[in-house]
Specification:
The chain is α/β, with parallel strands linked by helices. It contains 15 helices and 11 strands.
Length: 437
Amino acid sequence: MGLETTVLRTAPAGVQVTAGTDVPGLLRTLSANLAGAECQLLIPEQDVADPELSIVIPAMNERITIAQFVEWCKEGLAKAGVAGEILIVDSSSDETPAVALAHGARVLRTPKRGLGRAYIDSIPYIRGRYVLMGDADCTYDFREISGFLLKFRAGFQFVMGSRFGGYIEDGSMPALHRYFGTPLTTWILNRLYGTSFTDIHCGMRGITREALETIELESQSWEYASEMVLKSVCFQLPTAEVPVRFLKDQEGRLSHMKRGGWLEPWRAGWINLRAMLLYGADYFLLRPGLAAAAAGLALTLPVTLGPVPLGPVTLSLYWMLLGLTLAVAGVQSFFLGCIVQTLYAYTPEAARRWTRAFPYDRGMILSGGLLAAGIALAAPLAAAYVQQGLRLASPGGKEQYMAITGLLAVALSFVNFCSTLVLHAVSMRTRVRPGWR
């Protein structure tokens, strides 16, 4: 799907840092100003004028590795033969930003608001056509970035790195992550979305700036990684994978995951799983709902006029009650899936698909017809109830079977009426997204 971004994003002018700039004093001033949640861009003395690639890296207290990391990036840009900028999105309390500036990186000072939020904050300041993301801890080898450039120039808009398709240094990834957490969550996402990723948690990944603006990241923390992958699928971005090298932490450095304590990996896994489920809620609603509705109708409708023997089993009133429950739950689930897809509105077609399938006028007529049919089917039982002195005969009468089918029709009338109203109300509020034709 082609993207035509219509939203223009502009960033405030940055602060040019020259040889005479008091960098420590400037950083102290900016840190004090960040209490107002404003971002401040610092531009190094030797800046790249017109970058094709932007390496955008969140960093927090990475004084041990930041100098080497920036030099790795510069080496990777030179080997790839591409003009590129290095943008460090920094919320450090140590000298990380000063060191990054001294080595030629742009530094965007932001409040500490989470990993995903760091990328959201950086978008107005990105100048390159292509964006490469990762970590500032020298665990991803940014000396090797040519594979990403080749994919970008071939027309791919989202390029995932794959540690499992590349190289994983001994000791770089805990066994729990390497053999359980990452493979399991990758498998779950592939099953939910019909994809074939090999490493959805790889932090080294690339996306065009146009696509980054279009997918509109919302996640504030670790789950940005899953959100980005899921939206690349939902927006039908041309996607590729490239192998990357993953290295262990350098001596003296403690990863942010370990800094958060033993519970942090589980918390990160949980919020990533939550993102998968939230951005794929329709997966659990549409098809399962249709299956439940079909099973419920199959158990109810054939028994409308009385018991139906099926070999050793006889479909009777109790089977009908089970069928009624399945049918109502299934139809409701299906409509919720339609509403969710309309809310997502990843494409114009997705936003309008279900309102075209279920027009308002037809929905109201169908609801009225189901209500009338349900009342007609239940009427004989109501009449018998009155004639018998407000009592009912023992189960088994034909009127009772017809009444259950009638109750199903009444319930489906109500579900259809309410769902049609909500579906069209949601459609009226669906906003136009950047990139829609």
